[in-house]
Every structure is written in structure tokens, then in C-alpha cells.
Amino acid sequence: MQANIIYEDGDHRWIMFGRDPNKSDGIIDTNQYMIQSGDQAMLLDPGGIELFAPMLSAVLKFVPTDQITHLFASHQDPDIISSLGLWDQALPNAKLYSPWLWESFIRHFGMERIQYCPIPDEGLTLGLGRIQVQFIPAHYLHSSGNFHVYDPKAKILMSGDVGAALEGTDAPLFVDNMAAHTPKMRKFHQRWMPSNEAKLDWVRRVRQLDVNVMAPQHGRLFQKQHVTEFLNWFEELPVGIAIR
């Protein structure tokens, strides 16, 4: 599994894990993230159960397990949090922040020692080391209870499935041409995002943030210029096409 530092300022870092050339062909590639600030770290959408071993190995190159104090699951899908039962054994003192709606579902993945901290629908702000991170509502995109993570100091938005593209593990880290990239996103967003109203609410929220990097759960990341281009494209894209 590859690890890429996408932001670093002293002891404040964002690291992306993914592009695993050894993953099974039958499993989609996912991006996992870690925010580190001082002696605390948070894993964002830490991955499926099949990724636990390479993910743990990659994470330990940056922090010891006792500094992984927080986990975040944007929603209940297995590709982002089915590894929970194994993290529960590795991180006995951590807290999991996830939508209140999905607690009884997520517990099916196994959680005896990690503490579940439900995020209310309106979101919340959490202190992590020397910084604060914000859980931004992204309901119905694509899950009915869903959040994204914004770090106002690093100016990074972890955007879950919004901005996702399903590509090979050899894809570049960042989008370099939106005209060439949008065809790789269109069908995914039109089918998996069910609500135009929810989409427009999310676009409005994100336009109010200062975002240098948008980091989705699948595919390439977006730098500042392409974040704006993505918002313009997504705003105009009709979604929920399966009901037509």
C-alpha cells in the first residue's frame, strides 16, 4: 500500500493511503486518510477488513498505535469501516466518530472497546491535538446519514464518495485535466447520488469553505483550481437517474 503525505506543517500532517498494487481485482480501490496533530491522530474511513493488515503496516510507519486516538467513518459502507473489529483489537482506547443514524449498523462490524461517538445531523467540531476538525453534513451523498471532514488549517476537505472516480491503482494522485476526468465520474455520481436537493445543499456548504485540496474516497484528489471546477460541474449534474 502506498502512503503519500499531502500536507505537512510541523507536527500537523495529512497522509493518504491507497493505490495498493496487491489488492484483489474484485475489490475497488479506496483512499484512506490520517490526520496527525501533535501526539494524536485520526484515521478517516480506515477501509475494509481485507485492507487491515497493509493499512496497519503503513500507518505504523508514521505513528504508534497509542497515538491513534480517533477514527471516523463517513457512513456505514463496508469498504470504509468493515475493518472496525480488527481496529477494535489494535486500538483499545480510541473513539469512533460516525453519524448517529448508523451506530446500530456499524456495530455489526465488531466494536467492544472503541467508544462510539455519534455525530448529530448538524455536524460538530472536534479538537485533535493542536487543531480542530469539522464534520460537515453531506446527507444523502450517497448515504442518508453521511459526513465529510474539513481541516480549516490545512484547508483540506475529505469528501467521501463525492468526487469519486473508479480507476486503476496506477492512476495519478491528483486530477490534472477536468475535461478528461469528468467522464470517469459522471455515471458514478448520477447513480449513487440520489438527491439533487441534497447535492445543491452540499455545494452551497462547500463554497463557503476555503479548500486547497478535496480528497475523495476513490480516485484522484483535487487541487484548488479543480475543486472549483468540480463544484461547478457537480452543481449542474442531474443525479438520481435510476428513478427515471
UniProtKB/TrEMBL annotation:
InterPro entries: Metallo-B-lactamas (IPR001279), ODP_dom (IPR045761), RibonucZ/Hydroxyglut_hydro (IPR036866). Pfam families: ODP. It comes from the Bacteria. Residues 29-218 form the Metallo-beta-lactamase domain. PANTHER family: HYDROLASE, METALLO-BETA-LACTAMASE SUPERFAMILY (PTHR43041), METALLO-BETA-LACTAMASE DOMAIN-CONTAINING PROTEIN (PTHR43041:SF1). This is MBL fold metallo-hydrolase.
